[in-house]
Amino acid sequence: MAANTDCSLPALLARSAKQYADHRAIVFGDRTLDFKTFDAVSDRVAAGVAAQGIKKGDRVGLYCINSDAFPLAYFGLVKAGATVVPINLLLNPKEVAYILQDAGAKGLIYFELFEEGVQSIRDQLPDLSFYGRIGQTPAPEGVVDWADLIQHPGAPPAIAVDPEEDVVAILYTSGTTGKPKGAMLTHRNLASNVDSIRAALKLTPGEDVLLVVLPMFHAFAATVGMLFPLLNGCAIVPLPKFDPAQVADAIAAHHVTVFMAVPSMYNVLLRLPDEAADKLASLKVCVSGAAALPVEIMNQFEKKFGKPIYEGDGPTECGPVTCVNPIGGLRKPGSVGLSVPDVDMEIRDDSGKELAIGQIGEICVKGPNVMKGYWNRPEDTQAAFFGEWFRTGDLGYEDEDGYFFIVDRKKDMLIVNGMNVYPRVIEEVLYQFEPVREAAVVGQANRLHGEIPVAYVSLKEDAQADEESIRAHCRDHLGRHEVPRRVVIVPELPKNAAGKIMKRELRKSGEVERGVE
């Protein structure tokens, strides 16, 4: 098939820059870039990295905080024909080195905060020929300064793009079941997902403003919070860290209309004083994704702030957005909504057979948004599909209205005395217990029962509860086989950089505390 560059990301950005030239594109601190300037500066970055020998198809790591520099570097690399490899900011240097080695990276653009870690792994990365550093102080010897990239006098290289084949980004999964795998997302994958998001969110170019506090290396923030607005004339306000008071202040200061977060962030925002509700007045849409949103948290947030939360979902490998509750339409609490335009979803059993309405099976996805495959992992790629259908690893069902409900991650489901137990069901009950602030349930091997559910909870400030009172609440609302055999009360639950609760860390701590029973 002949290459069609109409849906290449640089072509879409050029269109956006022409249509919305003088509108705000990015507001970061005291700096504001309009669309025309953003397009021009990312052109200079492209020329700068090309001058350093980066060619079409080369992989380049991007290790940067949420800022105006992240999207400038991202688009600059893409315009140079490179493939962006975003780096999780919470990884240790050894893990960063693994990803860069696995991707066969030829370059790395990093933020000055990570200088020490980058320098500690340079000798492990002999194939990296280009380092660029974003910062206020001069870059060390052998590292190109960000100021030189954004002021490069040359023109960006002329790159022919095949949207179906050329990979924009390799996003590494969290590696919960082994080493991280790199999902390859093409121009077509991301452009189609941006189109689906535009149709689903119904935002107004030149008017709507998105706050981006989710880390931009993460698929949710990268596509919904960066690519979608910049390719459609909406402004973004990046925040480098999640602080509830700073979030409220930023929403008020910049008249933010769209807020995206993961469930734990909505939970933390509940700690804001009641008067902070006025600072959220400009919000039109709150979106939750990346993890299941407990219905109780949704109810408390909407009661306190008067703003509806629209829950959606989708894995990294799907761009990532696959479904969302329709904006302005029927919301079903506990549901991740309807599939977005151009994306098909089905429930299938372990053999790949489609299941009937209401039956629980694996959620599978088909569409132009689905990844090209895993980088250098043909066997893993093959195992991830039923033909054209990507297997998400989520267990769920579809109701008679076409709404999808996620019961749990397939790998998180427990089998207690031969019966399926879904941790999310137990977690929903735990969140209904007034003293509980956060909850997560994991399985522990047990010789008698096969597995037993173990609950980890943190309590609200000044709240009082013990293991027995929490288990008593569960007994009132759950079947005997679902009641946690143990309840561990902790100050905070461990979270990754995107704010998702890390169940694998809880499993590890449980094994250390008690051993496998």
Number of helical runs?
15
What gross morphology would you assign? globular
Quick one: how many beta strands?
27
Q: Extract low-pLDDT stretches.
A: 1-5, 512-517
Rg over alpha carbons: 23 Å
Mean pLDDT: 91
CATH topology (level 3) name of the domain at 5-16 and 34-163: Rossmann fold
- How much helicity do the residues have? 25-40%
The profile of the biggest β sheet is: 7 strands, mixed
Query: How far is the first residue's CA from the last residue's CA?
Result: 58 Å
Beta-strand residue fraction: 15-25%
CATH class of the domain at 5-16 and 34-163: Alpha Beta
Structural class: alpha/beta
Which CATH architecture of the domain at 5-16 and 34-163?
3-Layer(aba) Sandwich
> Order of strands side by side in the largest beta sheet?
11-10-12-13-14-15-16
Concise structural overview:
The protein has 517 residues and is of the alpha/beta class. The chain contains 15 helices and 27 strands. The strands form seven sheets. Strands 11-10-12-13-14-15-16 form a seven-stranded mixed sheet, sandwiched between helices. Strands 4-3-5-6-7 form a five-stranded parallel sheet, sandwiched between helices.
